[in-house]
Amino acid sequence: MYLFLLHIPSNIEIDKEKEKLSHLSFDHWLQHDLFSINWWILFLATIIPYFIFWRVVDKNRFFEVFSYGMFAATLCMLLDIIGTEMLLWSYPDKLLPIITPLIPANMVIIPISAMLVYQYFSTWKYFLLATIGWSIVFSYIIEPLFMLRDMFVIGEHWSHTKSFVGFIILGILLKSVFERIKKHIPK
Q: Is the pTM of this model over 0.85?
């Protein structure tokens, strides 16, 4: 009965608001983010890890390890979009103005570090221990450092501990799914 009293926005109204938000976001990026210290940190965090990865990746397993990383990047991007849309966290500073999730984290730092954990810790026991360490580093060191630079904001319904658990689940899920995929690939 009350439904008729509420205004339900049309797709046109939603698109107009998105357009306003897009302009605000671009103006903020242009005037605040572009070439700032935080922007350079994001820029370097997007490039440098690939050089490190290339030097340490097992070239004989490159396709396998890199495929694992691309799977990790896809999941990270999806989860980050969900988290930012639900206002669980946000990124005031961006490398690119048109993309909400943090590209350096989702497409570079998290996948590359996940690839290295996967490459160096093949048994489940050591993989789990390494994943716990990986989760501690991201949740309790990197996130707070990014918060100090105002590059990461945690919403009221999120915490570092939830990130910690999330990273562990992500690592276990990645390895579980990837191990199943590998079983079906002819050698």
A: yes
